[in-house]
């Protein structure tokens, strides 16, 4: 199904439109996360890079839509929406669950003839690094405890009963998508993969992150930052600089 202007508006946020930019970055958030998580990244990179941020169904202005419960569904729907934006070099940045979505999206775009410029997999083990996690099956109290253990943006919001009722369904659906995700056999990516993790992240070890190298025929590297699962909250300037440098170098190579 081809994307329309309406589906673009639902799925993609452009906080700082930069039509003159030579390249784009698409950011995909963690379980329970939203496009607004990447507002600081967009502000930092504009106007050199035009930043798009995916807004999944079931949260914020899409809170009345049913949530998607598989990574495949998210990637399938995003592929139709994102494909028209690949007229300029496109790099993907996914944090936690968003890294899995970004990987599957990159595979779908590759099948359609577009090799993305790079995949930044943040705070997420490689698709082949399986863990039998079932947090999505916990009762509300158990799921809230898990979120607070990770000390994410949502953890501080869950003490408000009204907000809790609003966001918990999307968090549970996203956890289900992330925890039940299994990669399908198929070709490897032909794009560089950069894994970024926190040194005390309980959700991914360095060895699990290094396994991303098995999913690409191109370059791979791993960078480890101080912090836990949401190391990115404190590391936005450094990570943004890494992403910007990668985009500038890759676009320069394309221009040769």
From TrEMBL:
<dbReference type="InterPro" id="IPR020802">
    <property type="entry name" value="TesA-like"/>
</dbReference>
<keyword id="KW-0378">Hydrolase</keyword>
<dbReference type="InterPro" id="IPR012223">
    <property type="entry name" value="TEII"/>
</dbReference>
<dbReference type="InterPro" id="IPR001031">
    <property type="entry name" value="Thioesterase"/>
</dbReference>
<dbReference type="GO" id="GO:0016787">
    <property type="term" value="F:hydrolase activity"/>
</dbReference>
<comment type="similarity">
    <text>Belongs to the thioesterase family.</text>
</comment>
<dbReference type="Pfam" id="PF00975">
    <property type="entry name" value="Thioesterase"/>
</dbReference>
<dbReference type="InterPro" id="IPR029058">
    <property type="entry name" value="AB_hydrolase_fold"/>
</dbReference>
<protein>
    <submittedName>
        <fullName>Surfactin synthase thioesterase subunit</fullName>
    </submittedName>
</protein>
<dbReference type="GO" id="GO:0008610">
    <property type="term" value="P:lipid biosynthetic process"/>
</dbReference>
<feature type="domain" description="Thioesterase TesA-like">
    <location>
        <begin position="26"/>
        <end position="247"/>
    </location>
</feature>
């Amino acid at each position: 199904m081809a994307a329309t202007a309406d589906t673009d508006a639902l799925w993609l946020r452009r906080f700082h439109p930069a039509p003159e930019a030579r390249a784009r970055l698409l950011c995909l958030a963690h379980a329970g996360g939203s496009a607004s998580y990447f507002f600081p990244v967009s502000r930092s990179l504009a106007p050199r890079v035009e930043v798009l941020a995916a807004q999944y169904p079931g949260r914020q202005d899409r809170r009345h839509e049913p949530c998607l419960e598989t990574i495949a569904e998210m990637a399938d729907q995003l592929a139709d929406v994102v494909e028209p934006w690949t007229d300029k070099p496109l790099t993907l940045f996914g944090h936690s669950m968003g890294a899995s979505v970004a990987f599957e999206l990159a595979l779908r775009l590759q099948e359609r003839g577009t090799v993305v410029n790079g995949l930044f997999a943040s705070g997420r083990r490689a698709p082949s690094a399986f863990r039998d996690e079932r947090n999505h099956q916990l009762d509300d109290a158990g799921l809230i405890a898990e979120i607070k253990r990770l000390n994410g943006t949502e953890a501080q919001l869950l003490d408000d009963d009204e907000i809790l009722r609003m966001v918990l369904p999307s968090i549970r659906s996203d956890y289900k998508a992330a925890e039940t995700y299994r990669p399908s056999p198929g070709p490897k990516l032909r794009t560089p993969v950069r894994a970024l993790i926190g040194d005390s992240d309980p959700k991914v070890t360095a060895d699990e992150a290094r396994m991303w190298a098995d999913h690409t025929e191109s370059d791979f590297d791993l960078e480890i930052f101080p912090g836990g699962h949401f190391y990115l909250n404190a590391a936005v300037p450094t990570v943004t600089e890494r992403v910007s440098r990668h985009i500038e170098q890759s676009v320069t190579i394309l221009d040769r």
